[in-house]
Amino acid sequence: MVETASSKAIGVFDSGVGGLTVVKEICKKLPHEHIIYLGDTARVPYGTRSAQTVQRYSISNTDFLLTKDIKLLVIACNTASAVATGTLQGKYEIPIIDVVRPGARAAVAASRTRRIGIIGTDGTISSGAYQTEIERLDPGSVIFVQPCPLFVPLAENGWCSRDDEVVLLTARRYLSGLIAAHIDTLVLGCTHYPLLKDAIQTVMGPTVKLIDSAEETAGDVLRMLKMRGIMNPESRAGASTFFVTDIPHRFAETGSRFLGRELENVSVVDILQL
Description:
The protein is an alpha/beta fold. It has two domains: 10-98 and 215-273, Rossmann fold (3-Layer(aba) Sandwich), CATH 3.40.50; 101-213, Rossmann fold. The chain has eleven helices and ten strands. The strands form two sheets. The chain has a six-stranded parallel beta sheet, sandwiched between helices. Strand 7 (185-189), helix 9 and strand 8 (209-212) form a beta-alpha-beta unit. The radius of gyration is 18 Å and the shape is globular. The two termini are 30 Å apart. The mean pLDDT is 93.
């Protein structure tokens, strides 16, 4: 049977497991789509790398996914989205969706006071990508940023509960300045952070709107597929295939918490091929 553009898979890459929160949201909105995911676990984390290094990694990740004949690419890493989206869009013809622009757009739409906070890795925050996009959309916004690097290992180790004292203490330490700034909207600028959403909401209080970039990105994927007429018409559930560059068993174990189900079909890609 000849494969049509509509029946091809969506390609997703991240530096590790965090991008599985994006996959989870895509599966919710588009359950019939096939997904091919690449987690660059041999070179994680991207958040502490230079922009040039992340761009190089992003190109090799994209080259690999293109060998799978994907129909759309999702950059499910905030750091790669921040520093490599332009590079990839200039190099490839395939439609590309990042996680920064959907989150920034949702934050501007949600904020009533135009006081917006952004949390993320050091690399994402220092890139200024969210700040630039929010200011482009609404020059009158007042933006407050806070890197929260310890949220990543907490999420990967399953320490996510709002009842966990360590989680709450860490969140209070990071978020106290944003509380004092009286923001009304907070962008979760890392794909690990949705796992800590309840704890972050507890610390910030019920009046602060949390923007989950994974949810917003899935919405953009839906709109792009509709616009291009390449949604999968099949009625059966789509298949998900996972590739990593190192330690597949750890990816499968940790990734099950991010995806909300057991991971199957995890294969290793030789790092020298990327």
